[in-house]
Design brief:
With 200 residues, the chain is mainly alpha-helical. Helices cover 48% and strands 7% of the residues. It has helices at residues 11-25, 31-35, 40-52, 69-82, 88-111, 122-128, 151-157, 173-183; strands at residues 116-118, 139-141, 158-159, 168-170, 195-197. The strands form two sheets. A three-stranded antiparallel β-sheet has the order 3-4-5. A two-stranded antiparallel ribbon has the order 1-2. A hairpin with an 8-residue loop joins strand 3 (158-159) and strand 4 (168-170). The relative contact order is 0.14.
Length: 200
């Protein structure tokens, strides 16, 4: 991913992406992820933006390219199955993490603010199901109006089609509502919409 292509508007996002890419490029040295867990988001964003270039004009961390997310997702999912050899359920979870990472940093880029980290206690972790936590242990929240973690909504948005585990259905209604609570912005107006990809 080339940082020059992204429309970076805040010093916080610039620093986050630079440090995250440094950590990813230093093979074997992921200590910064332990110290600064939000850096893990950069890897997911890197993949999503890089793959978006193959089927669209490319995501750039602004609202002007949100409409490219549905097309990008229909390309990324079979890519994960084929090239990364993921099982369908794992691919849907990975897609949810990529999308949540992108949208959280998009919110920071467009509205300012930072990503906040919390470590829920064990009782809350069990209630929330560890799968809906970052690294199975963390919540990351963002927002200038209300702090929200977009990962649970992204996971709920991706589901298997009826009668098949292949493909995915993306229903973003709850995710759009959660993002709007965080920022005041309705992503549906920018083209984030229902996607049905059955791999037929």
């Amino acid at each position: 991913m080339s940082l020059e292509k992204l429309q970076i508007r805040t010093a916080y996002v610039d620093d986050l992406l630079e440090r995250g890419m440094d950590a990813l490029n230093n093979v074997g040295d992921f200590t910064p992820f332990g110290v600064h867990p939000q850096l893990m988001l950069v890897g997911y964003i890197w993949d999503l933006v890089d793959l978006s270039d193959k089927v669209t004009d490319g995501l750039d961390l602004t609202y002007e390219t949100v409409h490219m997310l549905p097309t990008t997702m229909t390309y990324v999912y079979p890519y994960l199955l084929r090239e990364e050899e993921m099982l369908p359920a794992r691919a849907r979870l990975d897609m949810a993490k990529k999308l949540a990472s992108y949208l959280m940093v998009l919110a920071c880029n467009m509205h300012g603010g930072e990503i906040h980290i919390q470590r829920p206690n064990a009782r809350i972790q069990q209630k929330e199901k560890r799968i809906a936590l970052w690294a199975n242990a963390l919540t990351m929240t963002v927002g200038t109006r209300q702090h929200v973690d977009l990962l649970p909504s992204c996971i709920q948005a991706f589901r298997a089609p009826k009668d098949s585990d292949d493909g995915f259905i993306f229903e973003p209604r709850m995710l759009i509502a959660k993002y709007q609570r965080a920022t005041g912005i309705d992503l549906q107006k920018y083209g984030l919409q229902h996607v049905r990809n059955l791999l037929c």
